[in-house]
Amino acid sequence: MELLSNQILAGIATGAIYACMALALVMIYQAIGHLNFAQGEMAMFSTFMAWQMIQWGMPYWAAFVLTLMLSFIGGIVIERLLFRPLAKAPILTNLAGFLALFAIVSSVAGLIWDFTIKPFPSPFGASPFLGSQLISTHQAGMIGVILLVLAILFFFFRFTRIGLAMRAAAIQPESARLVGINTSWMIALGWGMAAAVGAVAGMLIAPVVFLEPNMMGGVLIYGFAAAVLGGLSSPLGAVVGGFLVGIFENLVGTYIPGAGNELKLPLALALIVIVLVVKPSGLFGHTVVRQV
């Protein structure tokens, strides 16, 4: 029973990271109708920026906040320069743009900081949380920070004018334009917020997986699985899906003897396929019907 509790708590901690990544994916998907395959690389680049600022002597939380601001601006710039001109382009053209962004960000990060593994500091430490062996202080801190981020996002989208305008632009862009909402800039703000949320995931997972240009590859796949499981049309579903995938991953690694760790990633991919076959809209998503 203690082992089960330990794995569930560890799954909640890693699931919080997947929830952040899934939420970032869903935010961009709702804005432009495409999945951002470079979301993980953008988060990795933001984490490298935070690491560099810490190396220059900046306090961790100051580097954390400044990285979020730079990531937000960077997300807007990417949308304005690359994806706004592709707004009416075919799907394959957008896909090529995402793959190009993936390759460019990864290569630039390797060119600037090289491909060697670097330790990333944790502001919470790695000691047992409140003397318990079930969860570390870093895992507890991860959960706390991400729950705070999710609460802020909930308040923003539910109770602020800009948040409501962004929701309207994502759900009914034509109607939103008719009432005077600048849907183009709402999409850009969505990109910026998705980049900042991804940066949170990168900075919190880096002390666990260590910092290098390919660090977010597996995390992105788990984020895709979480987004598909919860529903690409549902931010709440993305968050719930992230926690479920995190718990599922840890239980698989523990209770499948000899092959658990090797099966984690294939099972995440299998989960994506199963959900798409059985319920394409996900657990919380809604089916979109288009008249032709």
From TrEMBL:
InterPro entries: ABC_transp_permease (IPR001851), BCAA_transport_permease (IPR052157). Its main location: membrane. GO terms for cellular component: plasma membrane. The chain crosses the membrane at residues 6-28, 60-83, 95-115, 135-157, 185-209, 221-247, 267-289. It comes from the Bacteria. Keywords: Amino-acid transport, Cell membrane, Membrane, Transmembrane, Transmembrane helix, Transport. It is found in: Cell membrane. It holds the Pfam family BPD_transp_2. Belongs to the binding-protein-dependent transport system permease family. LivHM subfamily. This is Amino acid/amide ABC transporter membrane protein 1, HAAT family.
